[in-house]
Amino acid sequence: MKLDIKEFSVSSMVFKSNTNGIYNKLTNWIEANKYYKIVIKDPKGTTGKSIFFASYKGSNYFEIEENIITVKELFNRYSANGILYIEPYLSQHESLKKIAPYGLNTLRIITILNTDKSVDIIAAVLRLSLDKRIDNFSAGNLAAAIDISTGIVISPAKAKTLAVDNTSYFNHPITNEKIIGFKIPYWKEIIKKVKQAATIIPEVRTVGWDIAILQDKIVIIEGNPKWNKDTPQIPLNKGIKPILTKYL
Q1: How far is CA 96 from CA 28, 53, 108, 129, 212, in A?
Q2: What angle do CA 207, 11, 92 make, to 5 degrees?
């Protein structure tokens, strides 16, 4: 049976500004799904750049960056090459919100597809926001290693900018919540879904999956074929070259 990644991925939509009735299509999509908080992304953006948060106020008006604008202005200001890529705002699991409530804290899980179509997971990391609404490691946030077999955080969190901050954070620096020993909710389901997703496009052998954990389910936000090599290595203070060379 062919797998459909839509079954467990975020309900994103792409709107093209040259499409007839596009403004109504956008607001109708929001109202039909009750996505009154949305995230706008540049599909080619990286490291958390070009991400904006907006609230739909009704009657074709949005609030974004403390400004009220029309849906037409939304397209004019935030579309990239005539394309507006939108995802619903996700409310994370309460246990993650307790540790770092400022942004959506996601997992980065790295898979490799073998020639026999089996899937290996070579690294898993919990990314934690500091005081930002994004959790990207390259944007100055923290990452901690997860034991793949148990789903338990096994390392202190570290920042990518080691030259500036080489601290090992055993507790979140703002909330003071403990990081090591945290049990990732729905871990068995996460492993199952990520391995399924890794087989959908077999031409892409290795992917870094960004996973959001909601209160009642998990969601795959995106897959990155060019995943950041620092993310799995810095928290453990060791490289993963010996692991990767086995797949060459």
Answers
A1: 32, 20, 15, 10, 10
A2: 80
3-class DSSP state of 64: strand
Please state the separation of Cα 81 from the chain's center in Å: 23
Give the burial class of 181: count Cβ atoms within 10 A of its Cβ; 0-12 exposed, 13-18 middle, 19 or more buried.
Answer: exposed
- On whether the pTM is more than 0.90, the answer is no
- The SS3 assignment for 160 reads coil
**Which two three-digit tokens encode residue 210?**
């960004």
Question: How far is the first Cα of the chain from the last one, in angstroms, to the nearest whole number?
Answer: 29
| 215: Cα separation from own chain's centroid | 16
Percent of the chain that is helix, strand, coil (3-state, to 5): 20, 35, 45
Give the position of tokens 């990314």. 127
Please, what are the domains in the chain?
11-88 (3.30.1490), 94-245 (3.30.470.20)
Residue range 69-114, pLDDT digits in tens: 999 999 888 887 888 888 888 899 999 999 999 888 999 999 999 9
